[in-house]
Amino acid sequence: MSEEIYDVIIIGAGPAGLTAGLYTSRHNNKTLILEGKKIGGKTLEAHWVENYPGFPEGISGPDLMKLMEKQARKFGAEIKQETVIGISDLSDLKMLSTRSGGFYQAKSLIIATGVSRKSLSVKGEGEFKGRGVSYCGVCDGPFFREKTVAIVGGGHEAVHDIEVLGESAVKVYGIPGKKGYSEDYPELEHLRKDPKVEFIEGTNITEIGGEDFVEYVKLDNGDTVKLDGVFIILEHVSTAGILSDAGVSTDAGGCILADKDQKTDVAGIFAAGDCSCKGMQIVTATGMGATAALNAMKYVKQLTRK
Amino acid sequence: MRIELFFSPICPYCPHARELLKQYQQDNPGFEYKEVDTFTEAGIERGMSLQVMAVPCLVVDDNIKLSGWPFTAEDISKAIQ
Lengths: 306, 81
Known about the structure:
The complex is a heterodimer of chains A (about 300) and B (about 80). Chain A folds into 2 domains: about 5-115 and about 235-305, FAD/NAD(P)-binding domain; about 115-235, 3-Layer(bba) Sandwich (FAD/NAD(P)-binding domain). Chain A is built from 7 helices and 17 strands. Chain A has helices at about 15-25, 60-75, 135-140, 155-165, 185-195, 240-245, 280-305, and strands spanning about 5-10, 30-35, 80, 85-90, 95-100, 105-110, 115-120, 135, 150, 170-175, 195-200, 205-210, 215-220, 225, 230, 235, 270. In chain A, strand 2 (about 30-35), helix 2 and strand 3 form a beta-alpha-beta unit. In chain B, about 40% of the residues lie in helices and about 25% in strands. Chain B has 3 helices and 4 strands; from the N terminus they run E-H-E-H-E-E-H. Chain B has helices spanning about 15-25, 40-50, 75-80, and strands spanning about 1-5, 30-35, 55-60, 65. In chain B, strands 2-1-3-4 form a 4-stranded mixed sheet, sandwiched between helices. The N and C termini of chain B lie close together (about 10 Å). The mean pLDDT of chain B is about 90.
């Protein structure tokens, strides 16, 4: 076990985590970033990013993340590729254990673990990819003009896509699954009054079917719904389990609850980026990373003064 | 042979597909190639007439070959041959 005590440990090396690391290390806070998968996060999947300020011609996701990594390391942030499997909150000290047997201690933690896309994993999903099954409402929505579609998922992005598809489709079903919507999102109020939108709640899809293209979905309540498209908008905060051990609250969808200063309900633990299910953009993630870092440093400074 | 690539300006996999197709065109000249922006009225109408439902989408002589997931150069070669 390392006796070293970091000022800040950041879990996750995507845009939020690397920005947080840049800020804390630049202010001489001893910083460790732990990343269980690839450094760069979900942005690595973006072949071309055209809406990140400062790159008027655009930049590839991997190149952008290499630059962010370089900038964080330049100021002294350590980055280790280890998966965190446990967090303990001992008031002024946070203890972390990793799958490879590592133990780390920090005065403050920033959770920036992102989200991963999930498939629905039902019969027909793979067969009808690109033929009625889609994973991006904004990208593929225009093809479903005057058609009937379902938006599957209970997170904010799924709710947003109901609004997007509602502009072109003739009918939109919102199917959040048995767990329902993660929150009482404000958009749901007007969507529930929209005659084009119908919510099918308390049931899960068991099958997507049709001949050459999607024609129906089957539900586990025995119903069959005729439609032309199924948008699967499922996100998953994979760290929800270990966070609950440390007393960090999440919503029903596993999104970490953080206030405007990116503080969670545990003193000294902050959350930034997609794992708090806000924004879902690279630029909002970096903004949250910077806010979390500034408040984490303030917290560490107050601890030192005790 | 007429090849069309349907793309949207915001789809994360589309820029890479466009680059691969441009490279394929350079390496294999002699076919008609057109990029179709599905965020235009003409583009979406053309796409819907061919039953395109997801981007990026590669269409060869009015037949959908690849649709809705990240292409590789190998996928494109196989789809066009």
